[in-house]
Each structure stands twice: as structure tokens, then as C-alpha cells.
Amino acid sequence: MTTATPDMAAPQHSVPDDVLRSFVEKAITGRRVFVSLSAVPGKNPGGPGNPEIRWLGPTTAAIARLPWFETNLPDGRTPPQPEAAAALLWLLAMALDDDTIPPTGIIPTWRGGVTAEWHVNGFDLEIECDPSGTMEYNFAGPGMEEYEGPVDEALVQLKRHVAMLPHDRK
Amino acid sequence: MTSSTQEGRLEDSQIVMRRVRDYEIITDSNDGPPRPSSNAFIQDGPDGDVSVYLESETTPAHITREHPGTYVVEVEISAIRAQGLDVERDPVPGDPGHCNITGRKSRGKARAIARSSRWVGGYGPTWPT
Predict the structure, then answer these.
(1) Using 50, 70 and 90 to split pLDDT, how confident is the model at A153?
(2) Chain B interface, mutation test: which of A107, A123, A129, most B Cβ atoms within 10 Å?
(3) In sequence order, what are the residues at sequence separation of 6 or more whose Cβ sits closer than 8 angstroms to the Cβ of residue B16?
(4) Chain A residues close to B29, C-beta within 8 Å
(5) Which of A112, B36, B39, B58 could form a cystine bridge with A78, CB 3.0-4.6 A?
(6) How far is B100 from B95, CA to CA, in rounded Å?
(7) A56-72: b or e for each residue (b if 16 or more CB lie within 10 Å)?
(8) Helices (H), chain A
(9) pLDDT tens digits along A24-68
(10) CA angle, A96 then A39 then A62, to 5°
(11) What is the ipTM of this complex?
């Protein structure tokens, strides 16, 4: 298993490979994700067998901009934890089958978790990964019943909700 | 500020201010105006409460001076109560108008409150770029 390295980030911003491996193996037994360096824009050789993952570069760059090393965080806030970022990247790699997903916003939580957010044309999707391994999300859309709860183990429901987001299929 | 509101239940029409870090700012429809993420209204302490400040008893400048690197939004208490939450006084040294948003804050509720908020003094984030 290989982790993604932000194209624009300093090396210390990348999620350590061993952290990703141990976290994923602990959290989701039997599943694997392979996000190679070749998928990062600018390093992608392209070709049918190695399509570019468009969301990956901006997402990892946004993760790299989180306040990893900010000192004196207010109110006892925990800095973002690599385990949470690794879990989020893993979850996105598993759930975003369609690469036309719009860009996401990456926001840290008070507990050291990381959230990916989409707010597009009245649809809202917020996915939170906690350092403890908890994965939850909220989905709301026009005229639809809001969902808020854990990520289902098979990701069926999450993938269905992701598919409802307006995509950029230009 | 009357003594009744200092000692009793805060009124729906009162306004509270919330500080927001630059990494807690998001946009709607990716190109809409920046607003606080729901994360800014979910938790900022181990007990789950969210700190806010009565507009009638402090200023955005005071908040940003006490908490450097933050921006400030304001929201009516009625918008918070519309989500089934409440605002309770919790005076702290130097901030007698400090309050907490109490109650269980789901992402949906926090997002609705964030969308009801308006930027006040000190706003000028560079994110997203």
C-alpha cells in the first residue's frame, strides 16, 4: 500500500505510509486501497490503465494546508491527526467511483478529525473521519430526507449519496 | 442590557457572535460567498459546548484581540433555537457576555446555523485560493 503525497506540500505534510497502513488495517479489515504517486497530477503518465484521479491532487493539497503544526490552538483543540487524514483519503478513494466529483473543502474538527465537504446546488455532503477510526457523514438534498450517521460498512449508501451530488461531466 | 436578560433566559432577538478560524471557512456551490463550516458550530471544548459572545456586551474587535487569528460572525439566538439548541450564559473573566450553545449539535443543525450567520468585523480570509 502506498499513500499519496501532496504535489505542492513539504514532505512533512504527507501522510506517513506506515500510519496509513496500520490505520486502515485496524479500522477496516480486509480492504485495501492503492493510491499511487503516479495518480498525483503532474506525475501521472496517463493512459487507459492509469487514469488520472482528478480529485486527488486538490484534496491532498487541501489536507496539506491544514494547521498540522499550529501551536497554541484555542480551547484545547487537537491538531489534525494523520490517522484521520489517511482514513479520509482511503474512504474517498473507495467511495468516489466517478472522477467527475466537484472539488471538496477540507476542514479540521475540534477533536483532530478531518472533514470533506461538498455544498453544490442545494446538495450537502459532509464526511468526517475521526482519529479513533469513526467515520460518519451527513447528506441532505432538495426535497430529500436528511441522513446523518455512520458510514455503512459496504459503502453502498454513501456511494448512492455521492452519486446524487451534481457532478462536473464536461 | 437589562437585569432581567442578564439573569434570565436570553431573548430570541438577541445576537451572539462566534469566532471562526480561517481553516473553518467553506463556500456554497464552490463559488458562493465564504461562510463558516458546520465544524465551527459543532464543538470547541471537551463538553461539546460552543462558545459565543453576546453582541450587546462585547465587540468583534475585543474577540479578535483576545483570540488572534480569528474572524467573527454573528447570528440571532432565534436561529439557534430553531434548530432545537439553546444559548446559556457562561461568564468568564474578561468576557461577562460569554455564553455557550448547548444541546446536541448534529452536522445538519450546525450547518443551518452557519448559513444563518453573517460576517462582522475582522473578516478578510484568503481561503480558498
Answers:
(1) confident
(2) A107
(3) B52, B53, B54, B55, B74, B75, B77, B80, B87, B99, B101
(4) 119-121
(5) A112
(6) 12
(7) bbbbbbbbbbbebeeee
(8) 17-27, 56-64, 82-95, 156-164
(9) 444 433 333 344 433 444 434 444 444 556 777 788 778 888 887
(10) 70
(11) 0.86
DSSP letters spanning B12-53:
TT-EEEEEEEGGGEEETTTTS-EEE-GGGGT-SSTTS-EEEE
List the single residue in B32, B43, B107 with the smallest CB-CB distance to A110: B43
Give per-residue pLDDT as tens, A104-125.
899 999 999 999 999 998 999 9
- The secondary structure of residue B92, as a DSSP letter, is B
Helix axes A156-164, A82-95, angle to 10 degrees: 70
CB atoms within 10 A of CB A42: 8
Tell me which amino acid residue B82 is: A
What is d(CA B97, CA A151) in angstroms, rounded to the nearest whole number?
Answer: 39
In a 13 Å sphere around the CA of B29, the CA atoms on its Cβ side amount to 5
Residue in the structure block whose three cell numbers are 503516479: A38
Inter-chain CB pairs, A–B, below 8 Å: 67
